[in-house]
């Protein structure tokens, strides 16, 4: 004769399995692995993102006014440095291809955040007949006249006055007239005016960003000539302004490839994040199904 075995709860039903904790149903080892994968992929994807997002903004309100006699040519040489700082060299020459001697005044409008930086005792002027002339840079006086306004934003002036050669260097540590943003280059030369008529203005830009042949000019004012590391402009008008926008083609192609790799990597990272979320949601779903069986 078989003995009946009483089961707890009556009715001969088998005992319910012991309840397990929520964290016991989460595969913590898998979560840790997925978190590590997520962090690594996000870091790699972020580092691969393109470094440029378009043409950088450069100041467009910087102006130069030359107050001197006998000026036959004014030159602006704008150089960008690797840290996106810049130097603008302003020079004026007379009929003998030597520097203009004073007294003279160079009136600079809206120089800030730039500054005057002419530390060198000598400088080379002119190239008439192939002979270079080296002259001494004389001390100059710097003053700040009252701002001038014609109804718009006031123009803040910085006046440089001297009786020696007309040679002034302007420096910017940030917000310079030339800037490189990844593969996108922007530059704006200050326009030049003169109180004694007009004279040709020569401009040279050294972008310090590799071979200029890699760049495609986007602006309407194209350079008069190009060298391996610079562009030059020359023209009869003294009160015009030259703006340059150029794209490094090889750099832009590299940016597109980096953007593709970044998108793929971040997409995989998104899949890892979804897997982590599902790992925490799955135990809750199983508990809900156990309470409300179909």
Structure description:
21% of the residues lie in helices and 30% in strands. Mean pLDDT is 78; it is low at 127-134. Strands 5-10-3-2-14-17-16 form a seven-stranded mixed sheet, with no helix packed on it. A five-stranded mixed sheet has the order 8-9-4-1-13, with no helix packed on it. Helix 1 packs antiparallel against helix 2. It is an alpha+beta fold and 294 residues long.
Task: Tell me the series of helices and strands, N- to C-terminal.
Answer: HEEEEEEEEEEEEEEEEEEH
What percent of the residues sit in helical stretches (DSSP H or I)?
A: 10-25%
Principal-axis shape: elongated
Question: What is the fold-level CATH name, i.e. the topology of the domain at 63-248?
Answer: Immunoglobulin-like
Quantity of strands, as a count: 18
Distance between the termini: 39 Å
Structural class: alpha+beta
CATH class of the domain at 63-248: Mainly Beta
- Runs in which pLDDT lies below 50 for 5 or more consecutive residues are 127-134
Radius of gyration: 35 Å
User: So, CATH architecture of the domain at 63-248?
Assistant: Sandwich
The largest β sheet comes out as: 7 strands, mixed
Mean pLDDT: 78
Total number of helices: 2
Give the strand line-up of the largest sheet: 5-10-3-2-14-17-16
Beta strand %? 25-35%
Key descriptive features of the protein:
294 residues; alpha+beta; Immunoglobulin-like; 2 helices; 21% helix; 30% strand
């Amino acid at each position: 004769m078989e003995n009946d075995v009483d089961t707890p709860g009556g009715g001969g039903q088998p005992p319910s399995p012991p309840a397990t904790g929520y964290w016991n149903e989460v595969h913590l080892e898998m979560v840790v692995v997925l978190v590590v994968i997520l962090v690594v992929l996000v870091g790699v994807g972020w580092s691969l993102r393109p470094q440029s997002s378009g043409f950088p903004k450069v100041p467009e309100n910087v102006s130069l006014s030359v107050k001197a006699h006998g000026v036959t040519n004014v030159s602006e040489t704008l150089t960008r440095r690797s840290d996106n700082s810049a130097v603008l060299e302003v020079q004026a020459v007379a009929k003998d291809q030597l520097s203009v001697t004073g007294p003279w005044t160079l009136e600079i409008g809206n120089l800030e955040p730039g500054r005057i930086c002419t530390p060198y005792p000598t400088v080379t002027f002119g190239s008439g007949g192939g002979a270079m002339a080296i002259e001494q840079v004389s001390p100059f006086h710097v003053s700040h006249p009252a701002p001038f306004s014609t109804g718009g934003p006031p123009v803040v002036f910085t006046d440089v006055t001297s009786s020696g050669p007309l040679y002034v260097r302007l420096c910017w540590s940030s917000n310079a007239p030339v800037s490189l943003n990844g593969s996108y280059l922007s530059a704006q030369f200050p326009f030049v005016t003169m109180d004694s008529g007009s004279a040709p203005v020569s401009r040279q830009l050294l972008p310090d960003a590799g071979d200029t042949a890699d760049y495609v000019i986007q602006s309407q004012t194209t350079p008069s000539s190009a060298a391996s590391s610079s562009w030059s402009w020359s023209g009869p008008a003294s009160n015009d302004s030259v703006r340059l926008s150029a794209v490094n083609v090889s750099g832009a192609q590299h940016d597109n490839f980096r953007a593709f790799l970044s998108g793929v990597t971040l997409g995989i990272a998104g899949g890892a994040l979804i897997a982590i979320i599902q790992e925490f949601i799955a135990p809750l779903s199983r508990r809900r199904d156990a309470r409300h069986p179909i």
